[in-house]
Amino acid sequence: MARLSSISRCFWLGVFAAALGAGTAGGDALKNADGSWKYSNHLVGETSPYLLLHAHNPVEWYPWGEEALARAKAEDKPIFLSVGYSTCYWCHVMERLVFSEPEIAAQMNDSFINIKVDREERPDIDRIYMLATQLTTQHGGWPNSVFLTPDQEPFFAGTYFPPESLPGRPSFPQVLDFIRQRWQDQREQVLQIAARLTAAIRDLESGQQMTAVPPDSLLVARVLAAIQVRYDAINGGFGGAPKFPPSLRLEMLMATAERFADPQVQRIVLHSLERMAAGGIYDQIGGGFHRYATDAEWRVPHFEKMLYNQAHLARLYLRAYELTGDDRWRWVAEDVFRFVAREMTGPEGAFYSALDAETEAEEGKYYLWTARSLETRWGAR
Questions:
Q1: Angle at 315 between CA 312 and CA 319, to 5 degrees
Q2: What's the pLDDT score for residue 16?
Q3: In angstroms, rounded to a whole number, what is the distance separating the alpha carbons of residues 107 and 111?
Q4: pLDDT at 74
Q5: What's the pLDDT at 208?
Q6: What are the residue ranges in the chain where pLDDT is below 70?
Q7: Which one of 2.30.30.110, 3.30.70.1050, 3.40.30.10, 3.40.50.720 gives the CATH number of domain 2-208?
Q8: pLDDT score of 211
């Protein structure tokens, strides 16, 4: 298991290679000449946009429920669980390049019970099996691809798998064949791995559900020190690429700066907010923050926009304004509010949870300018 478990650490190789062919499969290939669908599965009656996206894959997808789980036990087959959400770019890529391929689907249907979950409908399932992926690969992400025993215990996990192998990363058909062989020939070893991983998840879950008690001052000091060690003094934020807005860490540091008037901690927070607002992770034209930056300098965003990022970051910029009285922080917060009101609020008054990263099967196309489009708009320079 160790050899294949390590493959997901080569995530970016798969990401960039898949992007080259992201629009080459699926779509019309799944339709008959008269425009009707060639395939339909157990997702056709669902209401989730993400599940409906897969309702006409050749994969015999089930929603999470008793029918699929009972069939796995009755047929003694492992479960392939795929978790994602409707605005996830790499979920779309895997749907087009992997799940829309009849040969791969036949391999899945023959040896596995295949279940699709929308993490926004079932955050409980998402949380449990994301822990499995994080424990086995040391990272997480979506689509989350997890193999389970018929008793729903995970024994192998990863994220995006390509249709064809890449350097250091097997293809999804290779993964399927590997799991099928281990289930047939090394069942006892697989069950032992599943039992250990399930026990580890339960330990983590029980720890998260413990009664909250106020942390002592020593623990707080240790956490603050650990956060500051990873601070990027040049670009703001913490660590390297890919770089996510560190909202919770900055909130903790902001509270420290407010309570103890600590100038060093305040500089960390304000510098991070300044670099994010000046970078490509912030939409300088349309407003709002993208989900993360693919580089350490905040220049190149992954183009999804999540509602929770807008909420966390707008609050941080408002607190920075309250702390300093500097109008630039207030302006960023107000710009985020304008963006949310304009583009993430539905006609009935509820909020949209996210905006998709892709347009016409291309990541970020809506947000990018070509040289020709710039010349058309502004004239040649």
A1: 135
A2: 41
A3: 6
A4: 98
A5: 63
A6: 1-27, 207-212, 380-381
A7: 3.40.30.10
A8: 61
* Strands in 46-205 per DSSP E: 61-63, 79-84, 113-118, 144-148, 154-158
User: What angle (nearest 5°) sits at the alpha carbon of residue 106, between those of residues 59 and 148?
Assistant: 65
CA distance 272 to 282: 13
Distances (CA, A) of 325 to 105, 176, 262, 351: 58, 57, 17, 30
Tokens representing 221? Answer: 């000091």
Asked if 311 and 95 count as a contact pair (C-beta separation under 8 A), the reply is no
What are the domain boundaries of the chain?
2-208, 217-378
- 217-378 has CATH 1.10.150.20 classification: no
The answer to whether the Cα torsion of 61, 63, 64, 70 is positive or negative is: negative
Burial 257-296 (b: 16+ CB within 10 A, else e): beeeeeeebbebbbbbbbbbbebbbbbeeebbbbbbbbbb
User: Residue 228, class by beta-carbon neighbours within 10 Å (0-12 exposed, 13-18 middle, 19+ buried)?
Assistant: middle
Q: What is the C-alpha separation between 315 and 322, in angstroms, rounded?
A: 10
The dihedrals phi and psi of 291, each to the nearest 5 degrees, come to -65, -40
* Residue showing tokens 């890529």: 93
